[in-house]
Amino acid sequence: MTSSPARSTRAWNYRVAMVTVITRVVLREGDAHEWDDAMRERLGAARDRQGWLGGQLLKPEEAPAERVIVGTWDSREDWAAWHDDEAFRETRERLDSTHAERSQITWQEVLADVRAP
């Protein structure tokens, strides 16, 4: 496979001093739309938080009632401070009421993060 000229000359940005938290949620039947809207609102509010680097809201193709949230932060402390923020707490009750089971959280140490400039 040959890389395109634009890609071969692109300078990549490398950053590794960060952590990623992955949260898996199973939603009750019929609650996905409401939950997705509330989570998009929460992710939008996180953009201005100290330490927030980015995030994704994912829906597994093989499990449409599940959601996976990938959040990348400078540190766990920044993530914990976000959980004390009013904007976070405002959506917590709405989101938690739509879960079919307790969410699962795992932490990942980022060894490499390569993104296009």
Topology:
Blueprint: H1 5-8, E1 13-14, E2 19-26, H2 32-46, E3 52-58, E4 66-73, H3 76-83, H4 86-96, E5 104-109, E6 114-115
Antiparallel strand pairs: 1-6, 2-4, 2-5, 3-4
Helix pairs in contact: 2-4
Structure characterization notes:
By secondary structure, the protein is an alpha+beta fold. It is 32% helix and 28% strand. It is built from four helices and six strands. The strands form two sheets. It has a four-stranded antiparallel beta sheet. A two-stranded antiparallel sheet has the order 1-6. Strand 3 and strand 4 form a beta hairpin. Helix 2 packs antiparallel against helix 4 (86-96).
Contiguous helical run count: 4
What is the second-level CATH architecture? 2-Layer Sandwich
State the low-pLDDT regions, or none. Answer: 1-10
Helix-strand topology string: HEEHEEHHEE
What are its keywords?
28% strand; 6 strands; two-stranded antiparallel ribbon; alpha+beta; 117 residues; four-stranded antiparallel β-sheet; 4 helices; globular; disordered N terminus; Alpha-Beta Plaits
Quick summary of this structure?
By secondary structure, this protein is α+β, with helices and mostly antiparallel strands. The protein has four helices and six strands, in the order αββαββααββ.
